[in-house]
Amino acid sequence: MGWKVNGLIVEGPVDAARLPGRPRDTGQTLDIDAVYEHPCDYGIAVVGGWTFVADPEFRVSFNDDAVLQVSPNGRALAWVTNSVSTLHGFAWYVDGAPIRRVVYAEGEVVDESGEQLREEALAPEPLSEDYVFEMIERLTGEGWGDGADAMYRVWTCTEQVTAKN
């Protein structure tokens, strides 16, 4: 099965109101598929000790300033996998600072910075959705399946936001 999803996984709780766009809680809860099909700005779920932020509009994923706002202390993982466009990648943050970023499009590196993480050793090659899902588990200790099976609280933006990297 191919995926077309992206998001941010933050260690510990997230104050969703600090996400770009000054979002507000709609009170609605959806599964992951509905979050990406539904016209919403964010889906928030807690899995283990991590907060999964589904980001259909790419407002916080790979946005270094936004990651710093919601995760100034601790670890965070931005990720994307799109089997249709063959875009796959992740960015690892510690205390709000980007440590490692690697993004592949159509099998070629299109963005890479930082030293390879030890968790990347022996990960499936080439970079694909399997690689991204493996890195989610290796870096957070939570499997993608747990995030995919979670129910997400919907937050909608009250201000217009454009993606920023």
Topology:
Layout: E1 4-11, E2 24-31, H1 32-37, E3 42-47, E4 50-54, H2 64-70, E5 75-82, E6 87-94, E7 97-105, E8 108-113, H3 129-140, H4 144-149, E9 151-156
Antiparallel strand pairs: 1-4, 1-5, 2-9, 3-4, 3-9, 5-6, 6-7, 7-8
Considering the chains and any ligands shown, give keywords for the structure.
alpha+beta; 9-stranded antiparallel sheet; single chain; 165 residues
SSE order:
EEHEEHEEEEHHE
The order of strands across the largest sheet is 2-9-3-4-1-5-6-7-8
Helix share bin: 10-25%
Number of helical runs?
A: 4
Distance between the termini: 29 Å
Secondary-structure-derived class: alpha+beta
Major pleated sheet? 9 strands, antiparallel
Mean pLDDT: 90
The tally of structural domains comes to 1
Q: What is the 3D form? A: globular
Number of strands: 9
**What would you report as the Rg, rounded to the nearest angstrom?**
15 Å
Low-confidence stretches are none
Strand content: 35-45%
